Records
---
Amino acid sequence: MRQTSKAKKRRTIGIRGQLMWFLSAICLLLLLLFWFLSTQLLEPLYTTHIQKQLTEQADAIVEKLDEAIEGGQTLSYWGFGSQLSVNTSFFNALSAEIFENSGMSSFCVDISDSTLRQIFKVENLSYCNLHRTKPTDAANEPASYSTARAMRQLCRETGECVRKINPPSPSGSVQLMVGKTTADGSYTVLVTTSLMHVSEAGRVLSTVLPIAAVLIFAFSISAAWLFSEWFTKPLREVSAAARQVAQGNYRVQVDSARNDELGDLAQEFNHMAQEVQHASQMQRDLLANVSHDLRTPLTLIKGYAETVRDITGDDKAHRDEQMNIIVDEADRLTALVSSVMELSKVTSGAIQCERVHFDMGQLCDEVSERYDAVCAQNGWQLRLEIPEEELPVYADPDMMQRALHNLLGNAMHHIGEDGIFLLRAAKCPEGVRVEVEDHGPGISAEDLPYIFDRYYRSRSDAGKQGTGLGLSITKAIFQQHGFRFGVQSTVGKGTTFWFIMSEKE
């Protein structure tokens, strides 16, 4: 059956492989995104940026022209014989300002009047498509009908325009033009610049990008493999250590020097291995002790039963003595079995808390009365210290009664020479604090952390009667309620067990 299960189990890709392919896929996605941006969006974004610059330049020039016209300056006029006269000082200053404030390295500025004839030009391009091409590039197009004239006419009709102007030959570059008119419509401003750089960049990227993509992807695969190897190494160590724990090697430890989540995982694993080792040891001790405690009364029962059968005969006194021993040992055996079953039920959750509101002081008073007879018989004294006011708590009264009996029974089991043990309860900030104190031999510091463990016996308890499960049952009850609890002890002076109960739901 075990071999069949292994055969049906599917082998999936490990975390290292998943991480490696995830990082590689991310790199590939980034490369595709870069390719899309460089080939599909670079030119539109660049064109939009250039258009913004041209628009700002045209607006600045138009603003200067409008200011001059409003100021009454004559910028240009046509004299007799179609002789053009321009305001040289104004346009020279305008030209200097254009060169100074322009954010572009190469541009062409064309200013024309209402006759569509050019009155001023600033050309900083090696080849301006605006002035050296025709709108249709037809061979029979009149020479006077240039692209510049056509754009001037379009701009005057629309107020502003944006156009791409193609080169006269395939070897040239496309240029972008923005046109504006003055407020009174007397002048038209055309500003042009080249889009060659973005075209060249696109061609270079289309050539270089495939090679770069292959190199980057190969590097990313190597880097992803190295990273996944480094990242998953602690996980593989924890996995290998877990297999050793499963095989029974509880002493295995993993390196927890890292200061991250993996380091925390390693520390928690080491702590778990220690706890499993301790639990395994406690289990072995429990089985050994229970076996011993079961074997002893069973041996006595058998021996005394044989004595009754073979020896005592009609000696009633002797027979009664033997039978009483048998009954005591049977009771002891029954108590042990009952304690083991109760502990199993409480720890497994088979017994659920039925919490209600009640007075803990009253419960302590009722429990203490149960010990009057045994105290009077042995000359002991149980001191009850509770306030006059009520001590309201929210818990299971039956479970709390069992916990008090276990703690008081333990205190009697370790009662000091003065024969005094105490039960006290009082209010505290968290609710009600209950303490059971004895003046016995105390518990050593080595035994104190394990005093609530199953069947754990301190060195001072060696050879004493008892199941060794009372405190374990008490611990399980407190844990099921969510109460804080603990123990304080001084060797030679006594021990105090305490727990804090809540009064809220």
---
Amino acid sequence: MSTTNKPVKTASRPTRTLAILALVLVAMVSLVFIQGSTSVRLGLDLRGGTSVTLQPRIAPGDEGKVTSEAIDQAVSIIRQRVNSLGVAESEVAAQGSGTNRQIVISVPGENGRRVVDLVGQTAELRFRQVLASASGIPAAADAAATPAAGVSAEINAKFAALDCTKAENLQGTGADAPTDTLVACDRAGSTKYILAPAEVLGRQISKASAGLDSQAGSAWFVSLTFNGEGTSAFGALTSRVTSLPEPTNQVAIVLDGLVVSAPRITEAIPSGNAQITGSFTQLEAQDLANVLKYGALPLAFDRGEVQQVSPTLGADQLDAGLLAGALGLLLVVIFTLLYYRALGFVTVGSLAIAGLMLYLLFLLMGEWIGFTLTLAGIAGAIVAIGVTADSFIVYFERIRDEMRDGKPLRVAVETGWQRARRTIIVADLVSVISSVVLYIVSVGSVRGFAFTLGLTTAIDLIVIFFFTKPMVTLFARLKYFQSGSAWSGVSPRSVGMSAPAVEGKVA
């Protein structure tokens, strides 16, 4: 008995589809060379470095200050501070939601500790008139600590009891309100002050830079330039205190609640320029200038967990991840070649094209969006190998099903594709949607896994349409495959047929 098959519209131009894919690959390679991308940017867990979590400090009654806008502003300021230090490939990102939002800073390399210490500073700079000063020990042991005139008894009592030799009193908080009278120590803990409400604020600084005073024993300082508002306020402050007795003729420069310096003002300074001195080292002066240049953080932060990954450990993890990926890929290749034989070479070529596209995208996205490859991302790529292989299996098995139904190879390739592509598209879309949802709701390294999995799954769709299907169509036109050779992967034995199908007939 014989039956005739309905004519099937076959793809007549697979070479055109392959040419389009080739042009896309050439364009991607050209972009890589134009941008000078030479290597994939590696995350902290693969190259080593320092990671720290900053948790917003919430004082009683200040819960409303921890808003998404304030966190985003802090992220922007911290990112500018890090970039100003010339630290490449660092990451500053907010995680979580509501009052539980945190800022995670990841700095690769060996200088991460310095950067982490710097970026978390609130950098609330204030200029305050000195009302009283004394040595940094409690008044019971220091007779010079006399009550200050015009100050409440509560402030005087707090001033007398302040012990600047204790470490907890030398940790600036940045929580001082500019409108309040402040009791504070200097950074060295040698002197304590009563300070009037702030008259000049850090937000009124337009420029900040570090400089070296060679005439003063190579001392480093920070030069400040105020904006119009700050120039007027600083000029008025310095003009008023010049004629006052000590210590009220001093202007204290307060950073995060600690007095950096308190110079005596001998003449008015209307120019809008000032200097901060205080026995700075070069790094201290440069770091202070950098944090002041970009303004104060809108919130105070407590430092959470600090994680350090050595470059050696990062390299070991990278090697382990690459080895796992190579083994997974090798097993897939061996299986396809053993099961599908010559047809399996289409799978090998497809995986090679997918790997090349993924690598080029890693290079390009590293330049475009700062993408970094993490160990979780490598895991996502390894999982995606299985997703890609599943697409090939679905298509190849559909071809075999059609051949078992009596269709010749060239017809089976097209009818099998028509039936398989919907399954492939739906399966890949489900994987992509899952990856997108996981990326949105997750934090940390899980997002790297989700991103890479989604990206590789999307690449699978491109490869199956623009490479796998056209290559199978071309293979089906070859006499070697049409003859049903034993090693073709579409022989009667491998398909499960008693005899090869003849064009338009079934035996």
---
Amino acid sequence: MEWKQWSKHANAAAASSTASAMRQRRKSQSLIRGRDLLLVGLIATCVLHLYVVTQTHPATLPPEDIVEIELYRGATPPAGYVGYYCQSDGVKCHTETHKCWDSAICAETGVRRPPPQKKKKVIAYAISVTGDSPGWNGIDGAAVLGHSAVRAHRNSSYDAALVAFVSPSVSEAGRHKLEKVGFRVLEKNLPVEVEDIQGKLLREKISSNGCCGAWELLKLYAWTLTEYHRVVHLDVDSLVLQNFDELFDDDPTVGGAILSPTAIDTAKKNFEKRDTTLPLLEGIYAQYTMDWNMAQRPWGSNPPVQGGFVIARPSLQVYEEMVSIVRKGDFQGGWGGTRAGAFYGGMTIQGLLPYYFMHYRPGSGREVRGCVYNNMASNPRNVGGFGKGECRDGTVPPPDGAYTGLVEKGDCEDCRLSRVEDVKVVHFTICQKPWECHGTSTSCYYCKICNQFHRKWFEIREELERERGAYQSELYAHGKTPARRNMCRSYNRAGYIPIDVSKL
């Protein structure tokens, strides 16, 4: 009985083993068939790929391990890419050898791709900041000025950038604010330390000269920014109303001032007396307006440059030569024995620039129309009112004495009579700073145009705030100064409502 039970179990085990062996055999056969199918598939793929390659490319194509890529005509391959790309329609090139051949891939597209956009040259708008304080509203001036410059370039042939030269004394908070409103901040020391100036008079007096002393010389760094096509250095109390592309040509022919006979004669004499031993300097490296309010007799012969507007054509040679002049410090009644600089601010930019560009390097700078490019609402004559006194630029009015204020009619141009539509840059000097919230009186000779300029400044400030999401509607909703966009609580300095820079 036991044997029968054992035999039964043994037969069952044998049957189970046989069944297992049969399952294993079928599994192995299935795997073999799967491998065969995979192998067949791979072979078919390779054959197909080989067929495509041989049909598309000549036999001389490079090895298969070099990957190909298609890009737009003139486009640059990705960084580190070594392969082939469509440099122009129907052509492929190797990025290392630049050898090209006809490409069926490019040719088959049948699409003529547009040529790449030519990169615009960049005009930098620069300011200099020598110090700041908790209540300093110059940051508002910088913000609105920067926005106005970028805004003017929306229909320009050039791109715009913003740069701020700051002295070491400018706080980190002040620098952050400048960056916040769009400026590239560059810390700069004086181009020449005061103690290194060799001339005794200049060394002792320059720190207290003009509005800002030696720190006005920060503006010289405009000529060092060689990465830009031109650098327009403006004071923070300026406003750009239109682009002035016409001044950015390598050889500008429009926009220049109509010079008086005195100015023309002076320029001729200066050119004849130039130092011919200096290395050649060709072209125009500075464009500026004159500050005729500071001019001295004889009218038109040695005018100051107005330091709030200068277009620099960057050049390290020009920069180094001006720095060398300052270091030498030859200032006795003016720079280099001339009368250039014998006026307010003459020891710094206002006198240094006319000396360099009219005496040291005559012909390398030119005057542009102040009423267009740096309108300060100034009187061109030496007596107040309209049509009185002598023209400070040396212009002699018509014999009949008729006063027009129009340069095209032979009179000296009166910026107080300018049409705002014709003005491209405003400089708030005589008109005073917008953030001082002056009233809207029309009783003075310059009041009418100043009121229009102030309206423009607040209009552009509002545009800036709205575009940047910083408009403070709750503060402006119930104001009583509509001429200032209700951004003044009252018409006085204390009434000004600053821009919330943190929201820009």
